[in-house]
Amino acid sequence: MQPIPPAVVAQPVTDRPAIEDPRAAAIQTYLRNLLITPALALMLAGAVWLLFTALDLDTGALRVVLGLLLLLLGLLIQHGPVLRRSRDLMRAEHWRPVPVTVLDRTASHFLVEADGVCLRFPEVRGGIAHRVAQRTGRLWLVGPSPAGAVVAMLDGFGAPLSGRRVGRPANLMPPAEESFGSAGVAGDDPLVAAWAEVSSRAVRYRVWPHLGAFALVALIFLDAWLSQGAETIFGVVGLVALAVFFPIQLRGHYAAKRRYQPWTRLPELLQAGPWQAVGISLAPWQPGRGGHADAHGVVRLADGTDLPIQLPEANLDLIGNIQQVQGLWIAGDPEPGKLFAVGYPGFPILGLATFSQGMRPV
What we know:
- A hairpin with a 2-residue loop joins strand 2 (109-114) and strand 3.
- The protein is α+β, with helices and mostly antiparallel strands.
- It has helices at residues 22-54, 60-92, 128-136, 190-201, 203-207, 209-228, 233-260, 266-269, 316-325; strands spanning 96-105, 109-114, 117-122, 138-142, 149-154, 157-166, 275-282, 292-300, 306-315, 327-331, 339-343, 350-355.
- The strands form two sheets. Strands 1-2-3-6-5-4 form a six-stranded antiparallel β-barrel, surrounded by four helices. The protein has a six-stranded antiparallel barrel with strand order 7-8-9-12-11-10.
- It has nine helices and twelve strands.
- The relative contact order is 0.14.
C-alpha cells in the first residue's frame, strides 16, 4: 500500500514581527497564563505560611507549605526569564525558514544543525518535535541572539520552542527516519499515533487536579487541626472550610471528566479509516483560558454535501491550521451523531469532531 503524503499545514507569517503571527501570539498568551497560575498559587501559599507562622503552628503542614513555596518560586525563576527572552526575540525579528538536520535527541532535548551552527531545543512529549523537524527538513527561526537564545516553530505546530546555540558535541547519534504510514487508516502514521497517545494520556492532567488540590489543602489543615484541637477557633474554621471546599472541587472533577473523557478514545478513532480531505469554514470563536475553544462550522465533503461540524475543546494548533489552510482531514467516513478524529496527515495536529445532519446542495 502506498504511503499517504503529508498534509499542507499552516506556516508562520514572515511579513511582520514573529510575535504578531496569529498562532504564535495565541500560544504566547497561553504560556503567559501558565506562569500566572503558579504566581497566584505562590501568593496563596505565602499567605497560608504567614498565617501559620503568625499562629505559631510549627507543624508538618507548615513545612509542606514552605516546600511548595520554594517549588513554585523555582518554577518561576526557571521559566520566567526564558519566556521573556523568547518574547523579546519574537518582537524584534521575523520568522524565517531555515533548513535543518537533526543531529541527536534525548528524552528532553534534540539537537539540529542550522545555518552552520548547532542549536538545542526542548523535546515535545512523545518525541514529536524532532520527528516533525526531521520530516520537513526545516524549522522557522528567530535568532540566535548574541547571547545564543533562539526560538523555533515547527510546520503546523503553533507552540514556539525556546532554545540555545551550543557547541557541537562528539559521538552524535542521529535518530532513524520513519515512514508516514500507509493509506490504510489514519493511525498507521507512527507520529500521528504517538501524538494521539500523548493527547489521550494528557486527560488526567485536566481531570484530577481538582481532587489533588483538595487533598493538599485537606492535609495541611487537618495537620494543623490535629495540633490545635477541634475546640479552637482555628479548628472549627478549618473544618468548615474543608466541608465547603470539598463539594466544589468534586463538582469540578466530574465536570472536567465529562468534558475531557472523550479524548481518551482518540487512538481508537484514528483506526476508523483513511484520512479524507474536506473543505471547512469556521464560525467566529473565542479561545478559552485553558488554551482550547469549542468551535463549530461547516465542512463540504467530496460529493458536495455540507455537514455542520462541532470541534469540542479544539486546541489552538488545530484552529489556527483550519483558519489558514481552509481544509481539514477526517479519519473515516463522517456520520452525523458519531465522534470522529480530525487532523492533518503527517503532523501532530489532532482533534475531535461531531457532525450534524447536512444538506446536499442543489
